[in-house]
Amino acid sequence: MSDNLSAPSYIRGIEPYKAGKPISELAREKGLQPENILKLASNENPLGAPESALQAVREAATAHNVALYPDGNAYNLKHAIAKRLGVPAEWIIVGNGSDELMGLTCEALLEPGAKSVYSQFYFSVYRIDTLACGGTPVEVPAKGFAIDLDAIAKAVTPEVRVVFLTTPNNPTGLTISQADFEAFLGKIPPSVTVVLDEAYREFVPEEDRIDSIALVKKYPNLFVTRTFSKAYGLAGLRVGFGVNSSELPELVNRIRPPFNCNTLAQAAAAGCVNDQAFLDRVYEMNRSGVKQLEDGFSSLNLEFVPTKSNFVLVHIGPKAAELNQALLDRGIIIRPCASFGLPEWIRVSVGTADQNERFLAALKELLAKLSAA
Ligand SMILES: *Cc1c(COP(=O)(O)O)cnc(C)c1O
User: Fold this and answer.
1) Which atom of ligand 1 is nearest to the CA of 96?
2) pTM of the model
C-alpha cells in the first residue's frame, strides 16, 4: 500500500479497533443462516430494545421529521436525562454512543506532549482516541485483574490531562468501590479530568455501584459517561451521554459535530430512559445468566473472573484461538481476548438462558475434542 498521503505519524501508529464479528459477516463467511447464529461477543442486550424505545422511534419516523436535521442540542433527551439524574441539563453532553464522548474529550483536552492514563485491561477506544490527538497514552499495570488506583494516581504527572476508569471494567467485569474511588478523586489535581466510564452500570448490584452523580456534584473534574447501548438495548442506534458540572460540556460543544446524535436515536433514548420495568427485567435476567455461565465454567473446571457485568472473562488456555475458530464454525461468536493482552482468555456476553445453554454445551464438547486432539 502506498503511504504518499501526508499524515501525522501518530495516526499511522494506531491499530484499528477490533469489534465483535457481526452476525451478517459470519453468515456470509460460513454460509450459515443469520437466525441460527449466536452472538455473545459485544455485550449487547439479548432481550433486544424495549418497546418504549421502539414506540418512540415509530412516532418519530415520519417523512417530515426524518427529512429535517436533528435537534443538535438534544433538548428533550438532555432534559429527560437531567431530570432522572437530578442535575441541570447544562451538565449533560449527548453523543453518538458514549464512544464518541471519549474521543471528543480527548480532542478538547489533549495535544502532542499531553498524556492520558488508564489501566491495563482497558477499552481500546481510550488509547485510540488519545493517539488520534497526538497525545501519549500511559497504561498502568493492573493488580491481578483489578484496576490499581494507587498506581494510577501516582502516574498522574503534570503532563496528564485525562484519566480513564471503567466500572465495571471491560473485559474483567470487576468494579471499583465507592470508598476507593473517592479516595482516588481526592488525590487528583482539579485540572485533570477523570472520565468514569459506567457503560455497564445498570447490571451492577446496587451495593457495588458508585454514587457517581453525587460525586459529579462534588468534583468539577469528574466526567461520568453512560450509554443506551447495553442495558437499554439500543447499541444499533448509537446514543450515550456524559455528565460534568464544570467546563467540559461547553468545551466539547465547540468541537462536537453539530448533529452528532440522530433524530431516531434521540427519540428512542428519551422514550426509554425512565423504563425502569425494562431495566429491572434486564438486571434479573442478567444476574441469573451470570450464575448459569459461572456455574457452567466451574463444572468444566475453567477459571473465570467473577463478574458484576453482563459478560464473563474465562480462561481457556493455549487453545483459546482454536476454540474460537471451532465456535465460529458452529455459528457462535464470542470475543477472543488477545487484543486485551489475554490470548488464553475469552469474553462471553451473557445471553438468554437458552443462548447460555447452547454456548455451554458447545464449549463442553469442543473442549473435550481439543484436549483429545
Ligand atoms: C460498550 C462500551 C461502551 C459503550 O459504547 P457506546 O459507544 O456507548 O456504544 C463504553 N465503554 C465500554 C468500556 C464499553 O464496553
Assistant:
1) 7
2) 0.97
